[in-house]
Write a structure and sequence with these properties.
Layout lengths: L3 H19 L4 H12 L4 H20 L5 H22 L4 H17 L37
Helix pairs in contact: 1-4, 1-5, 2-3, 3-4
Amino acid sequence: MTDGIDLFQIATSGAAAVAAEMATTGWEAFRSAIVRFLHRGGPEAAERELRVIDEARSRLMAYPEGERAAGGEELRRALFIQFAAFLQKYPEAASELQEIAAGVGEAQAGRQSRTSVHHNTNSQVVIAAGPVHLSGGMGNRRPGGAE
């Protein structure tokens, strides 16, 4: 797994995963996995690397919510550089970063929203995870009555 191309691919997926997770409420729990990963370089190196990551998260969270996507892209680039350099020094840590990235994908899949609808007599409720296209419109007819 020490092939340079593989390490860059792993750094790319790790950076994307960490950047995506930084803006979530589960960041503190996720951060502990990053700490374990960074300790591969020793406690002093881990502290330095983590300080850079924490400062980057602070900058990301300072963006207004509607502008975080732009900040997230900048963050992904910075994390890629950081992780690529780290993996060049400690290529044995590559599998751990891969596991972190895979865990984020699984966590995001598990965060599907759940909605409960109560007391909706004589109404329609449409819940969609994407665009809804209605050809012919949408109506609410009472049994035996008009729209």
